[in-house]
Amino acid sequence: MVKGVQQPIRGLFLRFYLLKTMKDLLPDKGSEYEDDENDVTDSIDFILKNFKEMNRLWIRLQYMSSQKDDYKKEEEREELKTTVGENIYRLSSLNGLTVDLYKTKVLPHILDTLIVCEDVMSHQFLIECLINSFPDEFHLETLQPLLEGISKLHKDVDIKTTIITLLDRLTEVVTDKESNIFKMVQKYIDEIFIRFNCKMESKLVIQVSLLSFCIAKDQAKVTENINSVLESC
Description:
This protein has eleven helices and no strands. With 233 residues, it is mainly α. It folds into two domains: 1-137; 158-233, no CATH class. α4 (99-117) packs antiparallel against α5 and α7 (143-150) runs parallel beside α9 (181-195). It is flat and about 55 Å long. The mean pLDDT is 87. One of its GO terms (biological process) is intracellular protein transport.
């Protein structure tokens, strides 16, 4: 029945209702529905599929032929964005979700869904949902593919907000033992500056955040890292 509803708003609300209804019925670690044949991977597959379809329906709202002007359509989509983001929140709240499952199943699927759709609002909202919903440790373990995915977002995305949010979260978990992360982050930020044709104001704000990141977590190479940031300004 869910597949048969192609009218975007109806489809979104039906799938959102399905997601809410199934919240306590999906197999998860420690739940009564987990057994030898059903486990958290089944729940992940279900939610990821629902996420992909809801994102597609959400984007279709923009292209529906109606008397609404573009502003009204954007406003309507803005009001409905949390229904799509709920899928990401549900994934992050699964007790059985491990770093390995996140790395191999969840993150690749979410990034693929985003990159393929090439929709600014979808990219902006859902990448921030992803960064804010999953644990900092997950981002640390998947930093390279995450940064790679961010670098492929639509060029009209407010990349400044996305990068600063990620850096602020990483600052809480990165230790001196992981100091090599700084160079990788800076490499991708330099590439992002070029791809997104960032204005000087955005560059400076991001660089300030990057400076705070390296000062807080890499005392051994703090001078070297600061010089590296300043040279790229």
